[in-house]
Amino acid sequence: MKIALGCDHGGYELKEDLKNYLEEQGHEVVDYGTNSPEMVDYPDIVFPLAKDVANGKCEKGIICCGTGVGVSIAANKVYGIRAANCHDTFSARASREHNDANILTLGGRVIGKGLAQEIVQVWLKSEFIEGRHLRRINKISDYEKQ
Q1: Which residues does UniProt mark as catalytic (predicted)?
Q2: Rounded to whole angstroms, how far apart are CA atoms 138 and 91?
């Protein structure tokens, strides 16, 4: 799978760990930066990454910051993105099965590397189950078009 990966300074260490983890799992990783722990403005990373997920250049995206909240808010401003901030495997699974999340956000200052890898693994393996959930996703998409 082709995965867009990005972070700000607060998520840099976690992004680097996840990059290695994802490549070891056989995924193609497109790294949007940042490439150091020096301070950056996360929208500068998030918007290009989210646009590439929305237009299909990458199948899914993972973005890290200190809490995962800021990057989630920014990513959700991009048309066609459903970013979910998850800090446990249940939320990760539900965000895919019920919400068809196409970007996962994680907090590098909130969770450890081992848990982050578990969350990523569950999130990537979970599939959207459609049914009643598709009706809700369609309502969100219709609202976005207004």
Answers
A1: 65, 98
A2: 21
pTM for this predicted structure: 0.94
Active site residue 133: no
Which one of 65, 86, 87, 133 is the catalytic residue? Answer: 65
Q: What is the pLDDT along the chain (146 residues), one digit of tens a residue?
A: 999 999 999 999 999 999 999 999 999 999 999 999 999 999 999 999 999 999 999 999 999 999 999 999 999 999 999 999 999 999 999 999 999 999 999 999 999 999 999 999 999 999 999 877 888 888 888 888 88
Enumerate domains of the chain plus CATH numbers: 2-144 (3.40.1400.10)
From CA 11, how far away is CA 96, in angstroms rounded?
Answer: 22
Residues 6+ apart with CB under 8 A from 124: 1, 3, 27, 60
CB of 28 closer than 8 Å to CB of 3: yes
